[in-house]
Amino acid sequence: MILKVVKLMKRFFSISLFILLSVNIISATINPRTLTQGIYNARASNLLIGTPITARIASPNDNALILIIDSDLNIRELVKLGPQSTEHVLEPLDYDSSIIIFGSGSVTFS
Length: 110
Prior knowledge:
This protein has a four-stranded antiparallel β-sheet, with no helix packed on it. A four-stranded antiparallel β-sheet has the order 2-7-4-5, with no helix packed on it. The protein folds into two domains: 1-30; 32-109, Jelly Rolls (Sandwich), CATH 2.60.120. It starts with a helix and ends with a strand. A hairpin with a 5-residue loop joins strand 4 (64-69) and strand 5 (75-81). By secondary structure, the protein is of the alpha+beta class. It is built from one helix and eight strands. Helices cover 25% and strands 35% of the residues. The protein is elongated.
């Protein structure tokens, strides 16, 4: 009887832990981040690391230039968002990637 209770408790704990971790991962992936003109570090900006992310300009009438630079100072990506191109899927970022945003519009990363 005690063994059954212990097994049941272990199973309950395992399922609870799995659900808790799943909720944290899901909330990190669906939490969009809006940035304006400036220079940002991917890690400090709480952007997703190692996964392609979508950059969208907040207003289709604005323009924004996005420059992604890696830790070796190589340009990884250069994207212009504006009335003709309001969103773009960016390559996965590294922890040490820098993001430079220049322009009149704010950019949402999701």
